[in-house]
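User: Here's a structure from my thesis project, written as structure tokens. My advisor, Dr. K., wants to see whether a designed sequence matches the one we expressed. Can you design one independently, without my sequence as a hint?
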């Protein structure tokens, strides 16, 4: 693993500004519930596996689509968490222990850059938006999961942005290659 290197001051400053702006939302009970829940549901792409399974339940749907979608999420996780993240060593802005008094969070052991939660969320939303009547609403769900990582201080804003871009591009490419349900 190599260190990310010196973060350009403009990116570091942007990360600090986003974190300072976000501080007003931390400690607001309803906002905390939303983002801590979203962060936990994003662990291991749990929310996306549930969505894939539920989409395969209606009559006429093929159960194999859920398996295929879960396989995609597994591939995305392998690519980002065991591939891309290994090239970088960026510390996280906080730890799960910082939130331990009110919320249970899993402590990540990988680099902060890029955000795997954001990557998985936007990969899933890119595919789901092309295959669902809910369309772009999936991007909103992905945005909540991605931003949850800033809220719980387990990622910098630039980690989330990079992860979201990587995931969205992967989802668009895969969406074109895989036949629709």
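Assistant: Designed independently from the structure alone:
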């Amino acid at each position: 693993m190599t260190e990310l290197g010196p973060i350009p001051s403009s990116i570091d400053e942007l990360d600090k500004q986003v974190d300072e702006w976000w501080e007003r939302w931390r400690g607001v009970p309803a906002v905390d519930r939303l983002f801590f829940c979203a962060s936990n549901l994003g662990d291991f792409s749990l929310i996306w596996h549930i969505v894939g399974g539920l989409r395969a339940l209606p009559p006429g749907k093929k159960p194999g689509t859920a398996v295929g979608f879960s396989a995609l999420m597994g591939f995305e996780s392998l690519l980002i968490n065991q591939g891309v993240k290994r090239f970088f060593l960026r510390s996280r802005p906080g730890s799960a222990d910082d939130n331990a008094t009110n919320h249970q969070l899993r402590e990540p052991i990988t680099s902060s850059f890029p955000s795997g939660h954001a990557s998985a969320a936007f990969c899933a939303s890119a595919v789901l938006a092309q295959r669902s009547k809910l369309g772009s609403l999936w991007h909103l769900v992905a945005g909540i999961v991605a931003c949850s990582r800033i809220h719980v201080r387990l990622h910098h804003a630039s980690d989330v942005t990079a992860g979201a871009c990587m995931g969205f591009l992967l989802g668009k490419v895969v969406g074109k290659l895989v036949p629709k349900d």
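When you compare it with your expressed construct, this may help: The longest helix spans residues 157-177.
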